[in-house]
Amino acid sequence: KQWYQRRVAITAGGDAKLAVPGGADLVYNLTLEDFEQAKYKYEMSNAEKIEFAEKAKELGTEYFKAGKFDLALKKYKVITEYLEPEAEDFDDMPDSDDEDKDGEAEKSEEKDPEHERKSQLLQVASYSNQALCLLKLQDGINAFKACESALKLDPKNIKALFRRGQSAEMSQEWEDAIGHFKAVLEEDPKNTAAASKIKFCRNKVMSFKQAQKKKYANMFERTNFKEPEPIKDENKVKPDFSDDEEGEAIGSDEEKPQEMEV
Length: 262
Description:
Layout: E1 2-4, H1 6-9, E2 26-28, H2 46-65, H3 69-83, H4 97-110, H5 113-136, H6 140-153, H7 158-170, H8 174-187, H9 192-223
Antiparallel strand pairs: 1-2
Helix pairs in contact: 2-3, 2-5, 3-5, 5-6, 5-7, 6-7, 7-8, 8-9
């Protein structure tokens, strides 16, 4: 049973066809006609995992276009959760010969080249789209991590490289951002968006350095350091080197040695 308040359920004028007066509260009785339990990850074949991931990607794109970035992020995360390889648990290894054969069949299926190719493409797109959602949600740190995960699978992915630069830019790591955007240009020299971002970040670095220089210059001006002046002692008497008896200074002409005759 679902109850709706009048302000959202019906217009003020009501509905004559349904015999509902204006401003009335509505109560709906909902009946679940059918339900299908979704399979767990370990129950799915490789083909089913790919199909599931593709549907999740479509839903995530719909949510993103509708501006529901948090819901889109959840759908994109589901893709990597289902497609990333699982760690082997040696404690649960099969003991019987039949179970060994089943395990070998599953192992061979996991190594299917076509599945691996599709899985990697979906994972890279998922991590890249996660980064895009996180940027929209102003979470530059986790956006950077998502880009790094995408680049581990595809080091030359342009979208992941560019969004990594955006993540650093959001965190105001201007010089790091410049390096990341340069990596974009190494793969795509004609990428005008990356070139524009490099120029923007360089201006930010220059502005920051100028602001720091001005800040410390003003700091030293306020302190106004000066060399201390020597203290004069007026009571100090200068020494008298004059001869009291002769009245002539030491080192006069009479005391000078005579020059040696040639």
